[in-house]
Amino acid sequence: MKTTISHIKADIGSLPGHTTVFEPVVKEVESHIKNNGASLLSDYYISHVGDDIQITMIHNGGIDNAEVHELAWNAFKAGTAVAKKYGLYGAGQDLLKDSFSGNIKGMGPGIAEMEITARKSEPFLVFMMDKTEPGAFNYPVFKMFADPFNTPGLVIDNNMHDGFIFEVWDIVEAKRIYLSAPEHMYDILGLIGSKGRYVIKRVLTKPEHEKLPDENVAVITTDKLSFIAGEYVGKDDPAGIVRIQSGLPASGEALEAFSHPYLVSGWMRGSFNGPLMPVGMKYAKMTRFDGPPRVVALGFVLKDGKLSGPVDMFDDPAFDGARKTAVDVVDYLRRMGPFEPHRLPEEDMEYTSLPRVLEKFKNKFEPIEKGQKKQKSINVSSNEID
Ligand code: F6R
Ligand code: MG
Ligand code: MG
User: Fold this and answer.
1) Which residue has the higher pLDDT, 379 or 126?
2) How far is Cα of residue 313 from the mean position of the Cα atoms in its chain?
3) Backbone conformation region of residue 244, classed left if phi is above 0, alpha if psi is from -120 to 50, else beta
4) Is 267 helix (H, G, I), strand (E, B) or coil?
5) Protein residue whose Cα sits closest to atom 13 of ligand 1
6) How much is the pTM?
7) What separation in Å is there between the alpha carbon of 169 and the centre of ligand 2?
8) What are phi and psi of 283, to 5 degrees?
């Protein structure tokens, strides 16, 4: 019997800026799911990180299920109405289309779904990030499923020893490739190091996995809002589902991948790099320089379509060191102001004034003559070149 975990998330308005969700909006989303989802869902959980509301749903309808997607869409619509009533900032910003047309993909919300054969005990983690992009999952997911220094189970657990298959998407050209670790480890890294373009969409077990042959074991949202809307309309803050234990990374191996606050892009105005800080729910609000980018992990167990949990996994002093490092990195990077590599390269920035600056001074640029010896004098008073 197959079960589907569908995680759908959207920013439908926040306060005071892009800081955090507003409780009445979250309540409206939740009551919509509660009142309209009974016949579709066996269970659900509503949470939030930063300005994004997150809906985790359990059902038997398979992935890309029109009714489940429509339920989430309508819940976000209902929440948007409340957000508008209170004048919340960016109310409805991730709902890019006017009406639902059968599949929530390409409509704005981020979506991660997997159909699984639930085990006797089915533990899994939901990771939710704010102020970053889908490629932010490349580093930790690679570490969880392919790096033996992070996940010793790859070396010492017979069930993991053959490794895993990575489905990598080229989100610019909408193409995908399946690569196998450890055999294609360096090829995988060659691609996913370019995290703005090549993103891990899924991890699968190999057919010879003794406990879980040919199963989905991790899935990440890969929706790029700017590609959908053709312009900057908000961040593509990603979420991911990772199954754990018994021939998969242990809970602690999956979490360990976040113990080093690696740099991700998408901070302030979607245009800066910053460290990804693992936090508990109570600290999932974006303050300093609209961040720093954060990740929350919720731990669930699924049985007969019902969820137990969640456990707020990073709400633990064991991650204080990572948080301290993240804040130190913030202090260091912030002193760079608008300079790269704190600021993203021109082509990756979500906001830029460069075209306007170039337009303004287009007649002032002059060719640099080869071998020009004499420096031109500058009339300081008029600030013009003679
Ligand atoms: C980053 C983010 C924020 C906003 C910033 C400016 O992903 O969401 O940093 O980009 O607060 O927002 P606007 O342009 O809406 O005033
Ligand atoms: Mg936002
Ligand atoms: Mg967000």
Assistant:
1) 126
2) 17
3) beta
4) helix
5) 269
6) 0.94
7) 24
8) -105, 20
Q: Taking the mean position of all CA atoms in its chain, how far away is CA 253?
A: 19
Residue of minimum CA distance from atom 16 in ligand 1: 17
Phi-psi region of 163 (alpha: psi -120 to 50; beta: other; left: phi over 0): left
- Cα–Cα distances in Å, from 347 out to 243, 344, 353? 35, 8, 12
Per the CB < 8 A criterion, the answer to whether 56 and 47 are in contact is yes
Looking up tokens 């057919």 gives 207
170, 300: one domain: yes
Whole-angstrom distance, CA of residue 373 vs CA of residue 29: 69
Verify whether residue 348 is a known catalytic residue: no
Nearest Cα neighbor of 9 from 99, 95, 86 is: 95
Are 250 and 267 in contact, with CB atoms under 8 Å apart? no
pLDDT, one tens digit per residue, over 310-351 is 999 999 999 999 999 999 999 999 999 999 999 999 888 888
Does 337 lie in the same domain as 255?
A: yes
Of 88, 116, 144, which residue sits at a domain end? 116
* 139 catalytic residue (yes or no): no
Number of separate domains in the chain: 2
Quote the ligand 2 centre to 91 CA distance (angstroms): 10
The amino acid sitting at 180 is S
Of 135, 134, 61, 132, the closest CA to residue 103 belongs to 61
Cα separation, 69 vs 77, in Å, equals 12
Provide the 3-class DSSP secondary structure of residue 116.
Answer: strand
Closest to 74 in 3D by CA, of 37, 111, 128, 21: 37
Mean pLDDT of 205-218: 94
Which residues are CB-contacts of 317 (< 8 A; sequence separation ≥ 6)?
Answer: none
Structure tokens at 57: 């749903």
For residues 47 and 101, state if they share a domain: yes
The answer to whether residue 366 sits within a structural domain is no
142 and 237 share one domain: yes
Residues 158 and 91 in one domain: no
Clarify whether 235 is annotated catalytic: yes
**For residue range 142-177, what is the model confidence (pLDDT) as tens digits?**
999 999 999 999 999 999 999 999 999 998 888 899
For residue 101, the enclosing domain spans: 1-116
Same domain, 159 and 105: no
Q: Is residue 377 part of a domain?
A: no
